[in-house]
Structure formats: structure tokens, C-alpha cells
Request: fold
Amino acid sequence: MNAVENKELLRHAFTEAAKGDGRPFVDLLADDVRWTIIGTTAWSRTYEGKQSVLDDLLRPLSRQLRGRNIIAAERFIAEGDLVVVEGRGRNSTVDGVRYHNQYCWVFRLAGGRVRELTEYADTQLIASALQAP
Reply:
């Protein structure tokens, strides 16, 4: 797939995520995906494989958020097999703490699947709003 096609795959996934439907995004993850969250928070590390992303990142996060995880993408930049997405979360925790994080994700896609993902976010907000996974 080319850069335009990769960008459109992610645009669709983020359009659905803005409505609270994360399934299209999860469906794009390759079985051997590597998702790295930068920083030194309890959440910061590389999650190796789709099952680890689900079990060690997404499920623990969803247990801490009130309602669905709402993420709205604001900008997409694509070149080669890379797509950069800027976005904002509009969430709160089950304890009522506001969790409106800003993100920049760098995706590497191959064969229509996300193979690598590096997440840059407000790590201070992660540390203050979320409990360790």
C-alpha cells in the first residue's frame, strides 16, 4: 500500500474512534505490532504483540476511563510507510479526573496493518490522572 492508502486507513480508524468505536483501530494492528509509549511513566514501555497491547495497555486503560475512549485526530501526514497523526483525547477517569491528553503518533504500516507505533503524549498528565496498569 502507498502513503495515501495508509493515511486513509488510519483516517477511517480515527473517525470511528472519535465516535467511541475503537474496533477499526484495533483491527488495523498487526499480530506482531510494537507499540511504544515514550517517557518514564508506569505506562511507558514497548508493548510487544497485539495480545500484549490488548491485555497490558488497552484493557487496563479502558477500566480507568469513564465511558468509551474518545480520541479525535486533527492532522495526518504520510510519507512512504509512515503516517504521523496528531490528536486529542476527551476523556475522564472513573474517579472523575479530567483526562484530555494531546498525542502525536508515528505509525509504520505494511500490508495494510500497523506494524510499529510510537506514542508521544503529555506524560505528566498520564502520571497524574492514571493509576499504573
